[in-house]
């Protein structure tokens, strides 16, 4: 029995960098989730009888929304839904399942690195048939639809038991509750040299993986402990919890500090890694070395042939605009194509589908390849372990040698979180107003070469994305970038990205913030961050 329910539109269902994210109480409003899910279905065509994939990162409200989505998918006419057992699917695992089984698309329930719980964040994202996040054309259509929606359709049926694997009927549609880990683990095993990594570990190389109480726990347990033989307990915080055990599941130096401190301690592990809420981000640390995500992308690209899945070499590299140019130097040397896209994984999809790039990355702890169409935290961790096993060198040695060969791109991101929205918009508008007058101006030793608001034309389909971040480029390759976050749920978050290229190896040991101090000061001078936001410093430095 299909029920048609009248509803009134909400005006705030505009997807951001990665889907719609709101606080749980917002999502729990009457028909709020239903409206958005129906708006997704109303924006798609030709899915009658086809398969939809549904899963989430296990956060608070995950199960409730999955039940709604299942019944609405049945009412909309899907033939089958594949849903992760327990409602669990990491973002890269969902992408893999969509691709592997030729699904029409997928709904991923996650607010990624944002905290979870009754008063924290929830999110819904739609992925298309290539397994990647819906492009802007579709997210725009969903938003437009959400503004005028007047009814949704839902099957009147009992809830599906998400904890029991198997096939079930739901109002004429099949629901297949699938093992969330098996296909993904098999994919990883096909890409990396598990024998070499297993030997590395059995030879005494100690690793610690922090799943931060979020979705990667079961994946890391299966792969790192079971298949690669790391001792039990190597994976920490391995049970996905609705509130992530109170953790802020963002793998960076602030939120994964415990792991970092452990690896840096005298008798700590040789290698540490962490993943975010939905499993698409990664942080990698070795003894005496934190690997910046931008460097990680460059090093993975430079050493790709170490991994069997990439032994033939890679087609090209793509990075988001704020990500450092470390990867550009690798591309140049190896004669590979390099692409600079706006922030957000959705911009990489076309390049991968067209075979232009194999490896992609973002400064925000995101790295991935064309094995799926999402960034992939565990993939990056395994890639590092494979490189370490193949080169028989530790993290710090690999990184230092990379800098010596290519030069070092000193890099840092300063976030000002929950800033007053008007103040943040005012700051960006004022910067935009200054762009034409900046080139030629000097600030101490730094002379502005160019300044613009980044705009991207997709080389495959010609679509244009404007206002993607303000860049101030200095002579010699240093730069400062300003953007407002598109994933936050309260106030505005100002992100300031600072980068300096240093070819001289004798200067590579300088502490990052010190190496960037003059640029950080100039960023404040040009944008008036302190005066406009009332903040004396950033909330998070990565
Ligand atoms: C942030 C990151 C961006 C990333 C996005 C989604 O976006 O900066 O690089 O793609 O989160 O990642 P923003 O708009 O807040 O800067 V995730 O792990 O939330 O799916
Ligand atoms: Co994420």
Enumerate the distinct ligands.
alpha-D-glucose-1-phosphate-6-vanadate, cobalt (II) ion
* CATH architectural category of the largest domain: 3-Layer(aba) Sandwich
Helix content: 25-40%
The percent range for strand residues is 25-35%
The number of helical segments is 18
Number of domains: 3
Question: According to CATH, what is the topology of the largest domain?
Answer: Alpha-D-Glucose-1,6-Bisphosphate, Chain A, domain 3
Write down the overall mean pLDDT.
96
Radius of gyration, in Å, reads 23 Å
Q: Any low-confidence stretches, pLDDT <50, length ≥5?
A: none
The CATH superfamily title of the largest domain:
Alpha-D-Glucose-1,6-Bisphosphate, subunit A, domain 3
Count of distinct strands: 27
Q: Give the end-to-end Cα distance, rounded to a whole number of Å.
A: 52 Å
Largest sheet: 7 strands, mixed
Strands side by side in the biggest sheet = 2-6-5-3-4-9-8
CATH classification class of the largest domain = Alpha Beta
Strand-pairing-aware structural class: alpha/beta
Specify the overall morphology. Answer: globular
